[in-house]
Design a protein that fits this description.
Helix content: 55-70%
Order of helices and strands: HHHHHHHHHHHHHH
Strand content: under 5%
Shape: globular
Number of strands: 0
Number of helices: 14
């Protein structure tokens, strides 16, 4: 594959990577955030609006992270303090956030605002083949690379990451060992929501410049599916994002060649990703995985044991 095509796939996948990593953190701690689609849309609108009014892309990303983090906190607050169902609240919030973004963003439709500028890395960009693929992007793409590594190392190689996972697997046992389960759920749900917001802003300030009601195009639901596809593992989930990005770019490149399918090709990556998710979780595939440790690590997708189950200290 041509390095320019691979670089395009990597750049197009960056917003989704932030959203998927954010949801992975949130679900690892035991909270289901189904408001992802609405949160990303609201973050995309907020990020573009703030950047448009201030001229600062950085402030746009910050505002997007804060608004999405706030939406995520509503879910964990209503679950812990009000004992409401996380899934129901998440679905309600995604509808509210979607409508709110459409209402508040009316004045910013088709406006031209600032965008993230490309910054090739000196010397590294001159490396044959790899330079064009990895080192000729903008800070958002570079940050997505760093985020994958940081989330992986944090989850599996730090004490805090292990405490996070124990809060999502066995909260009662974690609490008995002195781990503040609900406090961690607040912290990591907020942090996960912030990453989702960064992903939303990356759409309007980088990948799809500007703002419109259909800006995110259901990417929040795809992010949720990729978290499952990746088995709640940040590296495998990021790989899923790149697969989806590749499907998107291939579909776009095929449109001039297949004009009769121009209406079908843009949406084709969505059902393909869902079918892949179904295939990975098929009993036959999982049975094969049990026989092979290598395949098992790839196809295994067991959710955190206490995912979606609130922990109440009686």
């Amino acid at each position: 594959m041509h390095p320019e095509t691979i670089a395009t796939i990597i750049a197009a996948s960056a917003p989704l990577i932030f959203a998927v990593l954010g949801e992975t953190l949130t679900e690892k701690v035991g909270v289901v955030n189904l408001s992802l689609d609405g949160s990303m849309l609201l973050a995309a609108m907020t990020g573009f609006a703030v950047a448009f009014m201030t001229g600062s892309v950085e402030l746009g990303f910050l505002a997007a992270a804060l608004i999405s983090s706030f939406v995520a906190l509503i879910i964990v607050f209503t679950s812990i303090e009000l004992r409401l169902n996380q899934i129901a609240i998440g679905l309600i919030l995604t509808l509210l956030a979607t409508k709110l973004a459409a209402f508040l963003g009316q004045d910013f439709v088709r406006q031209v605002g600032p965008s993230v500028q490309a910054q090739a890395i000196p010397y590294l960009k001159d490396i044959p083949y790899l330079g064009e693929i990895f080192f000729n992007h903008n800070p958002v793409v570079y940050a997505s690379f760093v985020a994958i590594g940081v989330v992986y190392l944090f989850l599996f190689h730090t004490r805090y990451g292990l405490e996070l996972q124990s809060s999502g697997e066995r909260p009662e046992a974690a609490f008995a060992k002195g781990i503040p389960v609900n406090r961690l759920r607040y912290i990591y749900t907020a942090l996960g929501g912030a990453l989702v917001g960064v992903g939303g802003a990356a759409f309007s300030l980088d990948v799809k410049l500007g703002w419109s009601e259909g800006h995110i195009a259901n990417f929040g639901w795809i992010a949720l599916a990729i978290v499952i596809f990746g088995g709640w593992h940040p590296v495998r989930a990021a790989f899923g994002c790149y697969i989806f990005g590749a499907l998107q770019i291939i579909a776009l490149r095929l449109q001039p060649e297949l004009p009769g399918l121009s209406q079908v090709l843009p949406i084709l990556p969505f059902p393909i990703m869902i079918l892949t998710l179904v295939a990975v979780n098929h009993p036959f595939i999982r049975k094969i995985g049990l026989r092979s440790s290598v395949i098992g690590k790839i196809v295994r997708s067991d959710p955190p044991a206490a995912l979606g189950r609130p922990f109440w200290r009686e």
